[in-house]
Amino acid sequence: MAQFNRRSFLQTTGGALATGVMASTARAEDANSKIGVAVLGLNGRGQTHLDILNEIDGVEIVALCDPDSKVLADKATWVEEKTGKKPALEADMRKIFERSDVDAVSVATPNHWHSLATIWACQAGKDVYVEKPGSHNIFEGRKMVEAAKKYKRIVQHGVQMRSSDTIQEAVDHLRKGTIGDVYMARGLVYRWRPSVGNQPDSQAPENLDWNLWQGPATEREFSKRYVHYNWHWHWDYGNGDVGNQGVHQTDMCLWGLDVGLPSKINAMGGKFLWDDDKETPEQLTTNYLYPESNQILQFEVRPWITNSEAGASVGNIFYGSEGYLVVQGYGGYEIFLGRKNEPGPKRKSEGELTAHFQNWVDAIRSRDAGSLNGPVETAHTSSALAHLGNISYRLNRQLEFDPATEKFPNDEEANRLLTREYRAPFIVPETV
């Protein structure tokens, strides 16, 4: 692979950051021009991105990127069958960022690539839709926010509940006092997560560029324990279920309580069911305290056979002085009032993911980042909540956190876990 560093990348994309950016922006603002989109990461969630982008008017899938050549070829066939056009294919996303026909990218890679892909895209003058969690650690999240602002890019975080008019209505109930003074939010992730077994290190298959797949993570020997899905349960690549499914629910908690990062975090959990390759906990319970607003946020991951709570197994519960509100999944809510839990307003709808992508495309056209339902700030805060819980769990103690500095005061052991050692040339820059 050709030698690469950040300086050479900025030099090679200099045209994109000047005339290329202006041409791309002008094309996006022209309602009669198609927005050329590249999808980065095609296994699993990437197919969902393809499905929805293909249905949105004014969008053309012009390029695909994945380090697995078999996955890349399969999705290229899908795009050609659906659109009648052959997309450009690349294993290395840096080649995508050099393309003048790519106005925007959607990022559906593993978690450890999300922030760097977003930052590189912003530097190259591309708008971004990035899957949750926006970041793999707290440092990365802040750098994403800085990059989006500096390069004036439209960055949408994949927390599609924010584009559901039903969930927007639920939040309005919380704001106007339907359940009284809201003092607590719970996030629930009760997902069926069986044993992943045990896999040895082995030779990477010829169709996979293992170096590109690892990207910014610590270099390791290949193993089937990571590829293509179970990387979620390894600290180098994933963040456990609180940083997987759970970011939808952490984001909902923050949105509903109307708070940012907490001041105190306490997490407890572990592996209780299987002696398998997972590094992240099977079960995790975390408390986050907001002394300034006198509110508390609780989050729980359960992996196996369990009950639901108030009809929600993946969702949220908000508690107020006059009742409670249950968010069920991605597009429904129900309110219960008083000591007898009398039924209150409720609603159920679907289609929030398509609406979320449409909101992104509309913002690309208008160049109004303020119109985004899931702006880059949510990629930082909702992901950071998961990271804070994981840090408390890994250190096995309660943590004090300063939301203003985004540091643990006088706690260097915890501060070291705010970031990671990056593997050149895949380095998230201190200064974007």
UniProtKB/TrEMBL annotation:
Its EC number is 3.2.1.49. It holds the Pfam family GFO_IDH_MocA. Keywords: Glycosidase, Hydrolase. Residues 35-158 form the Gfo/Idh/MocA-like oxidoreductase N-terminal domain. It comes from the Bacteria. The gene is nagA_4. Residues 199-253, 354-426 form the Gfo/Idh/MocA-like oxidoreductase bacterial type C-terminal domain. The keyword Hydrolase applies. It is an enzyme of class 3 (hydrolase). One of its GO terms (molecular function) is nucleotide binding. This is Alpha-N-acetylgalactosaminidase. InterPro entries: Gfo/Idh/MocA-like_OxRdtase_N, Gfo/Idh/MocA_oxidrdct_glycsds, Gfo/Idh/MocA_OxRdtase_bact_C, NAD(P)-bd_dom_sf, TAT_signal.
